[in-house]
Amino acid sequence: MSLASTASPAKAPGIVILGMHRSGTSCLTGSLQQCGLYLGQVHEWNPHNRKGNRESQRITALNDAVLDASGGRWDEPPATLRWTPAHAAERDDIIARLQGDAPGPWGFKDPRTVLTLPFWQGGSADVRLVGTYRHPWRVARSLHARGGMPFDQGLELWRQYNARLLDYRRHHRFPLLSFDLPDGEYRAAVARLASALGLEPGLPATGEGFFEPGLRTAGQETDGPALPPSVAAVLERLEQEAGS
Fold first, then answer.
1. Which of 53, 168, 54 has the alpha carbon at shortest distance from 121?
2. pLDDT band, very low/low/confident/very high, at 168 (cuts 50, 70, 90)
3. Which of 49, 109, 137, 179 fits a disulfide with 17 by CB distance 3.0 to 4.6 angstroms?
4. CATH superfamily of this structure's domain 2-243
5. C-beta separation of 180 from 242 below 8 A
6. Backbone angles phi, psi at 15, to 5 degrees
7. Distance between alpha carbon 137 and the CA centroid of its chain, in Å?
8. In a 10 Å sphere around its CB, with 0-12 CB exposed, 13-18 middle and 19+ buried, how is residue 101 labelled?
């Protein structure tokens, strides 16, 4: 798989972190950044995540523009993706700058990329995908706590995002990590992933690892009314894929 870019193909490959909102994408991206993944200028603090969502404002704005041109937005996934030559030119410049500035592996994360990945595909920049997911009730509770999204809407949005994540994985067979793993298992899984991606899995010279249990907002409860069958089916498939 590749991303459009005018940069030299000899550059280090990119790493794109995929996953729905409130599903551990920020934690995984911050952890990989701590292991040497170059992200460029990203948010390192915001009101909903004290360590920041590790997203580039420029990439988020471009994803929003593509979704808007497609008649959708992050919480209303469009059926068909559309973009303009101007969007493509902005994409190519973003990737070229990341590649040009990175001393080694580079990458980015924005949950909207689950919806816009076809837009980013194509071209000459080699990339690897990484996916993360979280139990649907935990995501729905977090979305409700953050913005008041009704639980049924949150569960359906979870289904749409993660069905696409599974579809991408069928084609690209990338690593898939559960944000619900016990603390020690999660840290070990991230270290294994970093090593597999060619990053340094150890901690930095000073300070602790990026992951903290407190980053799992809205609690870890999975109990609640029975999941809709379509949501439960996607969760079952995710767990099977993550364990394979």
1. 168
2. very high
3. 109
4. P-loop containing nucleotide triphosphate hydrolases (3.40.50.300)
5. no
6. -130, 120
7. 18
8. exposed
